[in-house]
Amino acid sequence: MGCNFDITITANSQKEANTKIDLAIEEIERIEHLISSWKPTSQTSKINRNAGIKPVVVDHELFQLIKRSIALSEITDGAFDISFAATNKIWKFNGKEMEMPSKVEIAEFIKAIGYKDIILNNEESSVFLSKKGMKIGFGAIGKGYAADKAKHLLQQHGVLAGIINASGDMNSWGLQPSSIPWKVAIVNPLDVSKNFGLFELKNSAVVTSGNYEKYLTIEGKRYAHIIDPRTGMPTKGILSVTVFAPKAEMADALATAVFVLGDELGISLINQLPKVEAIIVKDDGNLKTSNNINVSTK
Ligand code: ADP
Ligand code: MG
């Protein structure tokens, strides 16, 4: 998945815990092999290789993930779009300064983006990227999906409580052995020694997307590794977005979408969704939070 997973569970013995955690790791690896656009042998790579050529029959699981991704594009007005990737890479998110690509290059890039050009066939369980140069990738939702699946598997194996941490994307269930809920601290991206307080996680997920790890700069301005599918440009203005939701998949995708939508539209979207909350840190240091969040900077 291109990230670390830390898995903490309650169990009667260390041995039992290790066996169950191994199952969760296998599950995460299985999903990675299915959905990763980096692995040439994955079904996602097969879809990408056949862009503009022909539909590819895929497992029900991947088909459904793509279907849910398209539904997320619809509710986010296209801000979240798994076809953001396109094959011609015009942006390099290595933390360095680069030159603005030309208007022609950006226009070419946008041409190969568009969730409406992902053609699904339910009967055949096939996926067709109808334009040449199109490409899909689950960088903004895959971690959350894998965490949800690992959690589900552990629950099926009788694990009563746990917390899965996919590089800061936290997904929990049950209570700690001391019978208190799991708590997570949301770090202030402007000063990582400070946080916005502790939040209880009760059978739910919290995901943070931030531009402090993968970014680029153009003329000294910092851009996050999240692309606005509508303009082809990387996003700026927001430092981090934290989203609370019942499922990690939803939280993951929405955190990315809010980056693209910006703080105003982003928060109004979050406020319309039941059981979803968000904290946005803008690059001027100001915070914007959804209706039911109270934060204090410590
Ligand atoms: P993080 O890596 O900080 O957890 P995200 O969950 O927001 O961040 O995922 C960012 C990744 O999502 C990018 O590296 C890229 O692979 C992919 N991506 C970029 N822009 C979009 C977009 N508009 N919609 C969907 N996925 C995107
Ligand atoms: Mg995301």
TrEMBL record:
Mg(2+) binds at residues 140, 252, 256. GO terms for molecular function: metal ion binding; transferase activity. The keyword Repressor does not apply. It is an enzyme of class 2 (transferase). The keyword Secreted does not apply. Magnesium. Can also use manganese. It catalyses: L-threonyl-[protein] + FAD = FMN-L-threonyl-[protein] + AMP + H(+). Its cofactor is Mg(2+); Mn(2+). Transmembrane segments: none annotated. Its EC number is 2.7.1.180. Keywords: FAD, Flavoprotein, Magnesium, Metal-binding, Transferase. It comes from the Bacteria. Coiled coil: none annotated. It holds the Pfam family ApbE. PANTHER family: FAD:PROTEIN FMN TRANSFERASE (PTHR30040:SF2), THIAMINE BIOSYNTHESIS LIPOPROTEIN APBE (PTHR30040). Belongs to the ApbE family. This is FAD:protein FMN transferase. It comes from Psychroflexus salis. The lineage of its organism: Bacteria, Pseudomonadati, Bacteroidota, Flavobacteriia, Flavobacteriales.
